[in-house]
Amino acid sequence: MSNIRTFEKPTGVRDLPPDITAKKRWVEARVEACFRRWGYREVVTPTLEYFETVGGASAIAEDKLFKLLDKQGQTLVLRPDHTAPIARVVASLLRDEPVPMRLHYHGNVFRAQDREAGRFAEFHQSGVELVGGASPEADAEIIALAVESLRELGITPIQVAVGHIDLLDALLLEQTGSSDSVAKLKESLGARNIVSYRENVKELNIPSTNREKLLQLLRFRGGYQVLSELEATTSCERALERINHLRAIWTALEDWGVAEYVIFDLSLVGSLDYYTGIYFEGYGAEGYYLLSGGRYDHLLERFDRDNPARGFALKTDRLIMASPGGLMEEERIALVYPEELRRAAFQRAHELRNQGKVVGLYKEEEMDSSAQDYDRVLHVGEGFDG
């Protein structure tokens, strides 16, 4: 016999009450309007995808995927992210469209969590993908739009930290000479475990000068000048090319008028391994994590289309908490009427709703404390103009 209680929900999922749902809709509407103004078109992908295609292309670990079998015995997954499904759409339904291609989305994603982890297994995201083009301007556009999205919601302060995955790979390889060591060091950085990173560096059988440069990487965080400081520590041509790419991104961000919100963090590593170029994260007050994104040059190859792309995902659930707006702006009116004036009350309610007001109807004998949720209470009675 099942031991599930009547009102129990599966691990990691939740109900959204009316006030939170209203705030969520407000956040999504404001963000969507911002995306549209920047020329991004909405695309919707299914909640279920094949494991062999999207499930395999996603950077989410297999043990985090929700799997199920269809009646034909095919393994399906609940959508673990939006980028891989959109890559599939770009390579199929939109294969004949020219690039650059600007797309945006809203929807939920699912990632299995351990019961003791205390994390959500279902959460909501809004985001964009810019497909095509390898220019610094394209990379800068996606960062600028991330900033503008947060500004649209009234979030302050805003900070976007930008790193570069291939630059970090080149710098780590230059000092260690080992791809295995690079992977181990990046794992520590990705986990934000600086103690582990330092310990791993100390264990490397490399010259002390190389070890010191690896430790210096943790300090390259700041504005445009950080790039020159980093440049002085390397002779790797690949790294120098990536540094110049970041310089070009910065000047484009200055032209966008958003450079004041951006810093470089050259030890920044994301949790999704398909990023190959820039990687960035956005924060609100007190470092509250709100978005992440970056450039991925090889994901579309999984679907037989060769285009670089970049994008970001806003963490909608966090934006609900961080944004100051979203409260009901319409006037809310409780309309109370006696049975004999029902027709007049219904007519008046219709008129008020056409004026954009929120109207709740109550019979006099049914009036209760829920009317306290309204801005005004109107009584339909003698002399009522309804």
Plain-language structure description:
This protein has 386 residues and is of the alpha/beta class. The chain folds into two domains: 18-166 and 234-322, BirA Bifunctional Protein, domain 2; 338-379, no CATH class. 37% of the residues lie in helices and 21% in strands. The chain contains twelve helices and 15 strands. The strands form three sheets. It has a nine-stranded mixed β-sheet, sandwiched between helices. Strands 2-4-3 form a three-stranded antiparallel β-sheet. Strand 3 (67-69) and strand 4 (75-78) form a beta hairpin. Helix 5 (165-176) runs antiparallel to helix 10 and helix 6 runs antiparallel to helix 7 (194-203). The longest helix is centred in the N-terminal third of the chain and has 20 residues, at 18-37. It is elongated. The protein starts with 17 loop residues before the first helix and ends in a 7-residue tail after the last strand. Keywords: Amino-acid biosynthesis, Cytoplasm, Glycosyltransferase, Histidine biosynthesis, Transferase. One of its GO terms (biological process) is L-histidine biosynthetic process. It is found in: Cytoplasm.
